[in-house]
Design a protein that fits this description.
Helix content is about 35%, strand content about 20%. The protein is of the alpha+beta class.
Length: about 170
């Protein structure tokens, strides 16, 4: 009985190793980007990064006395990734969801700061573990990013900080 010859080497050989590596990189980054965006979107999509931060505050704090967003804008200094934002807020009073008190030995408020990424469907919370800036790069490359804005909606010093110092 004759051995059946495989066609795989003949199909792969013309591509060559460099082309296969490039194909591999783009396949892995596409799967990472689309999979991560799907998982993040399943957690919640918000009309703005600020709305997303307010939802996180409502979920992470019990009966806060007050809260205020003090910065909401692009994470890139040059505005090159207008769809990747960092939002910082101050939260006074109440307790954290785990029951611990708000504040620290330095001040009587918490100052949460988180990333949000603008997709075509809206803004999603992006924890640092998903590497938001890198994710934003691949989103831009694959045309999956929303428009975002290079102009912050809350810039440093543009709104009163109610004693919230950074």
């Amino acid at each position: 009985m004759k051995k059946a010859r495989s066609l795989a080497p003949w199909l792969i050989a013309p591509l060559g190793l460099p082309h296969l590596l490039i194909l591999f990189v783009f396949t892995v980054t596409w799967v990472y980007t689309t999979g991560t965006l799907a998982a993040l979107s399943a957690r919640g999509v918000y009309p703005s990064a600020e709305d997303g931060m307010l939802a996180l505050i409502e979920h992470g704090y019990v009966n806060p006395d007050d809260y205020q967003i003090i910065y909401a804008g692009t994470n890139s200094f040059d505005g090159s990734q207008p769809h990747v934002w960092y939002v910082i807020a101050c939260v006074w009073g109440g307790t954290r969801a785990d029951g611990s008190p708000v504040g620290s030995s330095r001040h009587d408020y918490d100052q949460p700061g988180v990333f949000f990424i603008n997709t075509r469907d809206g803004w999603v919370f992006a924890p640092e573990g998903v590497f938001p800036v890198t994710l934003g790069y691949w989103m831009q490359l694959y045309d999956l990013a929303g428009p975002g804005s290079s102009k912050p909606s809350h810039d440093w010093g543009s709104s009163p900080t109610k004693g919230c110092e950074f």
